[in-house]
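Same chain as my last thread, 613 residues:
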Amino acid sequence: MSAAPTLVVIGCGPRGTGVIERIAANARELYGDLPLDIHLVDPYPAGGGRIWRPDQSPLLWMNSMAEDVTMFTDETVELAGPVVAGPALHAWAEDVRAGRVTPDAEPAVLAEIRGLTGQDFPSRRLQSAYLRWTYDRALAALPPGITVHEHRTTAIAVTGPRGSRQRVRLRDRAEPLLADLVVLTVGHLDAEQEPEQAELSDFAARHGLIHLPPDFTADTDLTALPAGEPVIVRGFGLAFIDLMALLTEGRGGRHENGVYRPSGQEPVLYVGSRRGVPYHSKIGYTWTGERPPPPRYLTPAWADELLSRPGPLDFRRDVWPLVGKELGHAHYHRLFTAHPERTALDPEVFDAKYAAADPGSPELADLVAGAVPDPADRLDLDALDRPLDGVTYESAEALQEGLRDYITADLTRRHNPDHSADLAVFLGLLSAYAQLIRLGDIGNWWHGFFSYLASGPPGPRLEQLRALSRAGVVRFLGASIAVEADEEHGVFRASGATVPGEHIEARALVEARLPDPSLRHTASPLLRTLYEGGAAVTDTGLLSVDPGDSRIVDREGRPHPRRFALGPFTTARNSGAFTRPRTGGPAFRQNDAAARAALGFLRDLSCHGRLAS
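reply #2:
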């Protein structure tokens, strides 16, 4: 019989680090001085994990400003455990400069820290140092009875009956770890190739072509993409931005005063997507004046009512109309309070009529048209989502110029506080995300829309994209991109709806996106064993977890007493393991609930002598 209960945490990137921080915060209240062994399993360094590991290119940036990144709770987070304050990334950098903190970082990273301001977009390797410091601080805060063991390897299976210890098999260890409780925080998943991707890879192999399927850009071998040749890129989000940086500056090119100086080693990137435009730029100013209003429509009571309805939810029918109305409320509240000279109705009258109008109704549209004279000041979510719908250009060159103008307009607006209603919508999106997590699996459209509007690249990245377009290194394909494998000619062919009749042929195709977070197609043997062992999975392949404490749910609807899971592969997926300060941090709330449930379970095992062999 073990002298202490054993907890195994699989995955120790920022999500696993957040769980350890919450265990440390809650241990004295819920666990006292009892002994506990915690085993952390991750092949990558604890703190940053795979995505935020220190050994990656300095060209790979975060897509958040340093002042918008924290790993610590504050009073805006709804949690049962204690708030434990800690510095946001920019404040941590100030502590490093003042000598109050000594991070574990290479000299080049220390030099970056010394120059970091709150409005900078740090490199991911700098964020790795912050995450590692957070992890070390969490370990130091654990009570003396809790011992931590790190295993730099991969967990390949979790087995065991519901009522006794679990067996965690590791790749390079014959004997499994015996765990009284297991927490999975494995982050984004590797995926087996979907049927379309497998067919494209087979086609490429037959014809000596290059096909790079969905993957993490930092882990993709890009050396096979030849200089000077066309490469079709499908995907215009953050994975494309990483790809763009690595294939241009990463091959010796330089950006100088808004002009790109090629090295001659770059391929020519022909990029398109469903929308045909890049994600919207991160907003480049901070909130001032009256605080944004609390959610009016997306309330806990609204979520409770939706969850009480029989049958599955339809996102577009049951959820999206009120999300749109909530975002409109945020937008117009800011417009009327911060820019009243651009409105034409008493704000209280507008507010009352807006509240009474049905979402998407003609009455609501008429109200907005009469109260907000300039169409540029009105919130049109459909136009934001699909700016190229119904738009065509007569030539490929006209499209290049049109997209450069679009990027310029987006950069101008997203960096001008005269349009601060856009920032209000961004904050409204964060609030909406926090409520929508409670609804479980609502499909992928919402997560894609959120990322497109709220989690886009830094402004400087779009400036670089525009310069690369002018230099001819990036070429835009437009919206509704389709890729064809031409067996007769042995090439990939891509075309879009924005320039009818135009197409590009290439011997290389890159899928610039992450693998889908589906357990049905995961390449992870660990998660496959959970799926094959009876864990419930939604129609889109997400692992079902109890919304209260993140216990894994089986196909009979029973939460597993000894297995927890948190992260983007679960039905409680959210916008990130870290967040902006003072925005509620739903991941922090989940971490706290899971940590408290785990500590309570392990305490009862220890106190009642029910440790099983």
